Amino acid sequence: MAAILQLMGFSLLMQGCLSSVGHTSCKTWSQDGNTFCCHACQPGHRMVNRYGPTLGDLCTPCDSGTFTTDPTKFSCDPCTQCAGAQVNKEVCTPTTDTKCGCKKGLLCGDGSCSFCITKCDKGEEPTKDRSCRPCRNGTFNDQGHQMCKPWTIKCPKPGQYILDQGTTISDITCAEVSVSPVHTLSRPDTTEHTWPLVISVVTSLALTSFIIIVILTATMKHVQKRKKTQKAVPETMIIRTPTDHPLPLRVVAVECSYHEAEQEEGGSSETLVTRDQLLP
């Protein structure tokens, strides 16, 4: 009977403990008699006491503006405040710290972005004083905000040669050694040249014909014009009264003009001479 009563009492005690655990801020715990031992608090809580008669009194939430990532610590850490060139990327929570970033054109100086540095471009490298400097002669940076690397000494493949030396933003340039190709004689394809040749011949013949027609037309017009200007003009001769001319005159055609009034009055000295009178 006594054993039964003890068992019932232990059962009631366990039920009370379990009901209190459901509302406790302690995540893992153990019990030794009437004393509880908290091994780790819930996320976002800090430990108040490791041992106590009540689990709910062993842990407490972090205050506003603080956080913790260690469930066994007795204090929460203050949230980081982004300042200066930093900008807030994620706000602080009871379980995570504030995440800061940097303004445009700047980069985080470390993993937690606790400070910002100038972003170096290609051909530059960062310095210890958080500035940038150009790559030295014989080195290059083709990625941006990295340390400059030395130029490659020789080409990576056999049969290559250095075509161009490196710059501050590029390594050396290699090229293959050119080998003269073997040219084989091939029969020329005359098909594609046939039509241009035919067109050229036809065009030349048409142009020549046109020029000949123009020349003939111009020549005919010139001849016709010349014939019109060279019409035969009949020869006329006025023969006066013969004198002592020693030689006979042969008259091919005689045209005489006289006035009847003058002949009647005897005022004209012109006389119509016939061919018979002139010939002996």
Can you give a write-up of this model?
With 280 residues, the chain is of the alpha+beta class. Among the domains are: 23-77, Tumor Necrosis Factor Receptor, subunit A, domain 2, CATH 2.10.50; 79-119, Ribbon (Tumor Necrosis Factor Receptor, subunit A, domain 2), CATH 2.10.50; 120-178, Tumor Necrosis Factor Receptor, subunit A, domain 2, CATH 2.10.50.10. It contains four helices and 17 strands. A three-stranded antiparallel sheet has the order 1-2-4, with no helix packed on it. A two-stranded antiparallel sheet has the order 3-5. A hairpin with an 8-residue loop joins strand 8 and strand 9. The relative contact order is 0.05.
How are the SSEs placed, and which strands pair?
Layout: H1 2-21, E1 26-32, E2 35-41, E3 45-47, E4 51-52, E5 59-61, E6 66-67, E7 77-78, E8 86-90, E9 99-102, E10 106-108, E11 116-118, E12 124-126, E13 132-134, E14 139-140, E15 149-150, E16 160-164, E17 173-176, H2 191-229, H3 260-265, H4 275-278
